[in-house]
Amino acid sequence: MARIRQIFSLLTLFILSFAAIQARAVNFGTGLTDTEWRIDASPYFCSFYQPIPQYGLAVFFHQAGETLEFYLQSTRNLMAEGQAAITIQAPEWRSSALTDELGYTTVKDRKIPIRIETARAGRMMDELGNGMSPTLTRKAKFGDDRISVSISPVNFKQYYNDYLACQTGLLPVNYGQIERTSLSFASGGDTLSAQVRSQLDDIVTYLKEDDLITAIYVDGHSDAQGNRYDNRRLSEKRAYRVTDYLVNSGIDAGMILTRYHGERYPIATNETAAGRAKNRRVTVQFDRINDDPNDPLLGLPDFEAQ
After folding, report:
1. Any signal peptide, and if so, which residues (predicted)?
2. Cβ atoms of 105 and 116 closer than 8 Å
3. What angle do CA 210, 165, 156 make, to 5 degrees?
4. Per residue in 172-191, pLDDT tens?
5. What confidence tens digit (pLDDT) does each residue in 228-244 have?
6. Which one in 95, 117, 248, 255 has a CA-CA gap of 20 to 30 Å to 73?
């Protein structure tokens, strides 16, 4: 009987050992001698990234007008959809340091399977500066292996100041934030508020950088209070207030088409105060060349690419 129990124990150990071998960890990352950091810098975005051999890119990304985020771009996504663990681990040469956990993040079956928001992306950067290695771990897409992608801290500090310099030079807004701008006005008024002037200042800063903007459309609107003639004249005054501000700020008047519509095109009900407030507006829109091979916005990541 003792002999049978011994055989059973050995068999169990063999099965568990076999399962452990089968469910191995497949690690992707770099070491002391093969780590690279690269920066793509422009007024439109900063991309601070590390190539991960045989996997893809680990990217800290900051777009103008937005906040920092991290994403993992894969040449071939090996992780199953679900939740990947984010941990802060010691690199091989600092094995005594403690591992810390940052929770989980969603894995999608895309070329960019993982995105991590500002707070944890910033923490990952801080830990790289401390010589630690942020690591993403998830079950393999096929089989029982665990896939781990580690970001090496080697040479991080050497390039971090270049990233900060890029960050400082970013525009205050990106094109997506201004391409259809709505500027609000007080009831019966055409004065540019401090908020509107701030919005226009951001637009001017962007326009002076982006040579692919070819036309600007300024459209004035009113609510339905009062008569149609007065409303049309009021929308005209509002539109030209905006146009004059742009021109006085250095924008070419020849690029601007100014129009005014009175109460004809409401975007909300005129039966409520809140609705009328939305209708009292000037919109600013643009034509932009979208097929220029040197368009700097082509460097923006496509988070939906399969």
Report:
1. 1-25
2. yes
3. 125
4. 999 999 999 999 999 999 99
5. 999 999 999 999 999 99
6. 95
